[in-house]
Amino acid sequence: MTLWRLEWLRLVRSYRWIILAAVFGFFGILGPLTARFLPDIVERFDESGMGMPEMGPPDGITQYVGSAQQFGLIAIAFVAAAALAIDSNTELSVFFRTRASMRDLFTPRFVVNSLAGALAFTFGAAIAYIGTGILLEWLDFGPFAIGVALQCVYLVFAVAVVGLAASIVRKTISTAVLAIGALILLGILTVVPPIAPWLPSDLAGALDGLIRGGDFEYWRALAVTVVLIVVLPIIAINRLGHREV
User: Fold this and answer.
1) What phi and psi, each to the nearest 5 degrees, are found at residue 136?
2) At 47, is the pLDDT very low, low, confident or very high (cuts 50, 70, 90)?
């Protein structure tokens, strides 16, 4: 059995893929429902009479992205950490390290979990898109598809951050928490205008911006993110390879 097949079976048989699909699928359903019915609910129970503005079709996707960006990213971080925290179990770590190089151990785990996260987000986004079309109005598919692709690139970067975190700490929970903290910090840095367009976090808002008619201004963030997706795993592999078990 190859390490690639082993990682695929680990993802499937541990039901981690179901966790990801359930999280993103749930928010994919909830997003359009919130955009369609929340203003009516608020108006019904709002005694001040002010209510809230009606939501448009882009808000169905916005509601999904907002939830997926929080809870979905946390789910991906923990699922990826469970695979990439190679040294969380000493006995298994020794077993694998004596039978394969760190690059051969790390690469399948990184690729499979990145693909799982991207597919889960796409699954939820497709549900949100269809729900928005049915309940509100159909959006242009082109900007939506480009935005989903950019968001998937960001999620692959997030898995790369988890891999780097796994080379700094050992335990699964510590790895996930450290990675989430780093991603939150990057998100906070987007408030600094000169560096915001260069940060991977800029891609996290691409889907919402594009479906609202915004221009494609994400080349700098995309280029930096792609470079980091390559560089961070290399650093992680090197650090893990030289770490004493």
Assistant:
1) -120, -85
2) low
Q: How many Å apart are CA 223 and CA 228, to the nearest integer?
A: 9
- Sequence-separated (6 or more) residues with CB below 8 Å from residue 232: 157, 160, 161, 163, 164
d(CA 83, CA 175): 11
Q: What percent of the chain has pLDDT over 70?
A: 93
pLDDT, average across residues 36-44: 73
* Cα–Cα distance for residue pair 209/34, rounded to 1 Å: 19
Indicate whether this model's pTM tops 0.90.
yes
Q: Mind listing the pLDDT tens digit for each residue in 84-97?
A: 999 998 888 888 88
Place of tokens 């470079």: 227
Question: Model confidence over 121-134: pLDDT tens digits?
Answer: 999 999 999 999 99
Q: What is the DSSP letter of 70?
A: I
Residue 87 · residue 93 · CB < 8 Å: yes
Task: Report the candidate in 71, 65, 68, 105 with the shortest Cα–Cα distance to residue 85.
Answer: 105
Domain ranges of the chain: 3-241
Closest C-alpha among 202, 116, 223, 124 to residue 162: 116
Longest dimension (CA), the chain: 69
Q: Give residue 218's Cα distance to chain centre.
A: 17
**What's the number of CA atoms in the CB half-sphere (13 Å) around residue 218?**
25
Q: State how far the alpha carbon of 204 is from the alpha carbons of 54, 81, 111, 165, 208, in Å.
A: 25, 21, 20, 20, 9
Of 90, 107, 70, 100, nearest to 184 by C-alpha is 70
Q: What is the average pLDDT value for the chain, to the nearest integer?
A: 92
Quote the CA–CA distance of 211 and 203 in Å, as a whole number: 14
